[in-house]
Amino acid sequence: MSVLQQTWKTLSISLTDAILTISMNRPKANAMSPELLNELIQTFNQASNDKKIKGVLLRSNLNSTFSAGADLSTVYNLSVAGERSAIDKFVFDTLSRGISAPLHCSKPVACSLDGHTIAGGLILALACDYIAIGTRKPFRIGITGPLVGIPYPLKALKLAQHQLEPQLAYRLLVDANLFSSNDFSIRCERSETPDDLSRKWLKMISYRLLVDANLFSSNDFSIRCERSETPDDLSRKWLKMICERALQGFQITKRKWWSDIIKLDSIDNEQEKKEYFEAVTSDESMQAMKKALTKDNK
Fold first, then answer.
1. H or E stretch at 75
2. What's the pLDDT score for residue 233?
3. CA distance 234 to 238
């Protein structure tokens, strides 16, 4: 059964001009439940294997949020239950595979950010080949796990370090700083309609120097993104541009680009799992998570 023929509970799926659009649609805030993560894994896997699909656009159907990251209520409930195996399964399997699904996809993946992008939502975006950031209204970008005592898994940490400048990665992962989208200096393009930016890029290819083979003025060189009032349009234009090229070279370069991150999939780090379990089940962390959940529900 093709990706278009299936019923998805947390995603809206469409195919236009060989571009598969995946719109996250889980109230509230596209918090990453096991269901949402598993559906992301399935759709990206199917996109890789479907010859009719030339590129993928990842976006949100929610007006103000791309994704709030891992569902805090899931982490909290598992921590209260104290079930180590269940926490390991969610964090180091389901969550890990879900947020890294775009980098494993053999097709070009563009991402449109037009709302708050927090924690695992940011890692998911950084795993894409191209990012378009909307400029119609500022929104928050950052990583909040440290605020409630949740350590960042090694794979997510390495992915952020791989894609961001060291100082910015440190401020996000350790200091837990939140940035305005206007001030967030990642490799992106900015537009009022980020979907269009992403589709534009999917017409060509990413990693601007290694894969796009673009040359830049030193005044214009930043990180991999574009900004526009219409980021969806930028994304679609990019996808259209990328998809007119022969994709084999792109696919080989993409695998090499992500090789250090992909290697982590085969490592079963028992010490990391033990430390994570001890952190999230500590009284201090559970009290912080409970307080955050109570605040969110008001």
1. helix 72-81
2. 84
3. 6
